[in-house]
Structures are given as structure tokens and as C-alpha cells.
Write a structure and sequence with these properties.
The protein is of the alpha+beta class. It has a single domain, classed as Imidazole glycerol phosphate dehydratase, domain 1 (Ribosomal Protein S5, domain 2, 2-Layer Sandwich), CATH 3.30.230.40. It is 32% helix and 33% strand. The radius of gyration is 17 Å and the shape is globular. 43% of the residues are buried. About 8% of the residues have low confidence.
Length: 208
């Protein structure tokens, strides 16, 4: 059975569609108002070997937060739907990913009991400029560690992930954030892997 899902979400602030294939080839087709965010989500898909298509519109002239958080919520819903009853999956995954001056660790459990822990040695105020010239004039906006954290928290809550992220260090904020998204993809890719030895759900309780 194909492990695919398509989820649409529309609010007064955002309009988002996510298509996810867990058994893909790592093809990312992501278009949001935030080019840097697109780049991060494409890396996530590539390293997790998921096929991921995202289309998102949002009130970025107000703030990036609404769009970033709602993409996390919608992606989480797609992940949960694609997994179905979680039968046969390894459930847990972890990955350490370096990128030049940066190093990140992601450890997760598809437990259906959301919990999120984020630890960073990189300041939330360290920023990478990614978008400017918004429709209300030339206003420079930024994508920072805090926004990444909000995306991860939304994903954890929506998908039911026990998600622990450590950003150990980083000098270039681009490298630091990218190492986290790559590690997330690899950890999740490992967790959703089907093992034929696992009958039903990998839990002594018999369900998650």
C-alpha cells in the first residue's frame, strides 16, 4: 500500500497544500514566499528520501511566523496520514549531520505522544537575510533559529513526534539551520523504514 498523503489547510493567514510520499526518491518541489525556507524543506526531503510537494501562500508582509508554523502543521498532518496505523515501521530514528562549521543532532520517536525539546548553542538572534522588497515597500525580513524552532514544534505536535533537536554549534547561521533540516530528514527517513520482522506496531502495548 502506497504511503502517500495530500493535505490542504486554509486559514485567514495562510493557504497551504502538502503532498508527501514516504517511499520516494528525495524529490522536493517546494514553493513558499520564503526562498530560504524552500531550500531547507528541499534538503529535508532529499536527505529523508521523501517526495515532497508544497505550495504555500501567507501574510509574510505581517510576519514569517504564520507561514512557517502552518507549513509545519500541514506537513505533520500529511506525515501522520501517510503512516496510517504505523504498522511495521522502526519508529525511532536519529542522525548527526555536520555542515562545515556547524553540527546538529536530531533524535525522534513516532510515538503519537508529541514532545518537543530544542537546545541550541547558536543565538536565536543570529540571522540570515532571505527575503526583501515586500509589497508594502522595501522591508528586509529574516529567517532565524527561532523560526526554525517554531516549525519543528508545529511538526512535532501535528505528527505526534517525540522530537529532540540539538544544534551543538555553528558560526554561519545558514549552515547551522541547514544541518538541522538535513538531520531531521535522515532521522525521520530511518524512523519510517519498514522492517519485515516487525508485526503490527512496534510497542509492547500493541498500539500507539
Amino acid at each position: 500500500m502506497a504511503r502517500k498523503a495530500k493535505i490542504a489547510r486554509k486559514t485567514r493567514e495562510t493557504e497551504i497544500t502538502v503532498e508527501l510520499n514516504l517511499d520516494g526518491r528525495g524529490n522536493g518541489d517546494v514553493k513558499t514566499p520564503l526562498p530560504f525556507f524552500d531550500h531547507m524543506l528541499t534538503n529535508f526531503a532529499r536527505h529523508g528520501l521523501f517526495d515532497l510537494k508544497i505550495r504555500a501562500k501567507g501574510d509574510v508582509e505581517v510576519d514569517f511566523h504564520h507561514t512557517v508554523e502552518d507549513v509545519g502543521i500541514t506537513l505533520g498532518e500529511a506525515l501522520k496520514k501517510a503512516l496510517g496505523n504505523n504498522a511495521g515501521i522502526k519508529r525511532c530514528g536519529s542522525s548527526d549531520v555536520p555542515m562545515m562549521d556547524s553540527l546538529s543532532t536530531v533524535i525522534l520517536d513516532i510515538s503519537n505522544r508529541p514532545y518537543f525539546k530544542f537546545s541550541s548553542a547558536v543565538s536565536s538572534f543570529a540571522i540570515e537575510s532571505v527575503y526583501s522588497s515586500l509589497k508594502k515597500g522595501s522591508v528586509e525580513k529574516t529567517f532565524d533559529v527561532g523560526l526554525m524552532k517554531e516549525f519543528m514544534k508545529a511538526l512535532s505536535n501535528s505528527a505526534g513526534l517525540d522530537l529532540h533537536i540539538t544544534l551543538h554549534y555553528g558560526e554561519d547561521i545558514h549552515h547551522a539551520i541547514e544541518s538541522v533540516y538535513k538531520a531531521l530528514g535522515r532521522a525521520l527517513g530511518a524512523a519510517v523504514t519498514v522492517d519485515p520482522r516487525i508485526k503490527g506496531v512496534l510497542s509492547t502495548k500493541g498500539k500507539l
